């Protein structure tokens, strides 16, 4: 998912942030673009200082951030974090805002998987909609998502929270299902859209067949890091009798396909159970895992190699940590305690 990457160069700016994590919360749903950034930060400060919101003295507000609609609030007292989290609903209210805005509040150290980047293909809608108009409708439908420019081939990059992206996917699927049945036949005129909605490898693409002649399919969209962590440390979650479970990864999203024998009620039920098991477990992992990225962009090729070797050498000390080494960075996924200890270890041994 890019997830909420806590950019952690070897100088470890993010490590200092992590040390304050017990006093920090993450806010999603901040209305972006309505007011000046400093004004919105002031409104957030007022909201989270109010006793009626279970708030307290705010040490720092970080807004805007690299993720649209996301802010960090650090309190002077870590106990305020617990109080704020206990409030059922946070509604951002101010005379400078035209309406109430619901905020999603979560613990900084426990919810690192807040942001996902995916590439959507809307080309299949080309002959029914003006794609620019469709994208504008998508923006209105999902105001908390950040949309990149529409490409000539109908692809568009979208970044935001995983639930928001999943909701957009469902919105597009429903829009596709609303097409008249006769439009689903091939060979229609140029004014008719092609009836092919492709469930594109973790993005929101659709296909003209959700089932083949032999197998029934259940499709589940997961964060790629969550999927790989599950596959590496909890492989039995991705296994079940009488079903075939496979995953196709594209960037930050992985599409998991669960296939069971068509026409067999027991197999179909097993497929549904497998889907629910994977989905429930992925939710639990999102609550307990954290991700940091050790950036190596500024280092020479030889230095990058040394850092990757250092990470591999330290890895046995953290058996529940998932490392994904890349050319310009190393992604670290695990519990907050393991991730923090590992990045501190890397920092210490790289001096």
Brief summary:
With 351 residues, this protein is an alpha+beta fold.
Write a structural description:
This protein has nine helices and 15 strands. Mean pLDDT is 77; it is low at 1-19 and 184-213. It starts with 5 loop residues before the first strand and ends with a helix. Strand 3 (58-62) and strand 4 form a beta hairpin. It has four domains: 6-107, Alpha-Beta Plaits (2-Layer Sandwich), CATH 3.30.70.330; 117-190, 2-Layer Sandwich (Ribosomal Protein S8, Chain: A, domain 1), CATH 3.30.1370; 211-288, Alpha-Beta Plaits, CATH 3.30.70; 290-349, 2-Layer Sandwich (Ribosomal Protein S8, Chain: A, domain 1). It is of the alpha+beta class. The strands form four sheets. It has a five-stranded antiparallel beta sheet with strand order 3-4-2-6-5. Strands 1-13-15-14 form a four-stranded mixed beta sheet, sandwiched between helices. A three-stranded antiparallel beta sheet has the order 7-9-8.
Question: SSE layout and pairings?
Answer:
Elements (H helix, E strand, L loop, with lengths): L5 E2 L5 H7 L4 E5 L8 H13 L8 E5 L7 E6 L2 H9 L3 E3 L8 E7 L8 E6 L9 H11 L4 E2 L7 E6 L1 H16 L37 E9 H10 L9 E8 L2 E9 L3 H24 L1 E6 L5 H14 L7 E4 L3 E6 L1 H14 L2
Parallel strand pairs: 1-13
Antiparallel strand pairs: 2-4, 2-6, 3-4, 5-6, 7-9, 8-9, 10-12, 11-12, 13-15, 14-15
Helix pairs in contact: 8-9
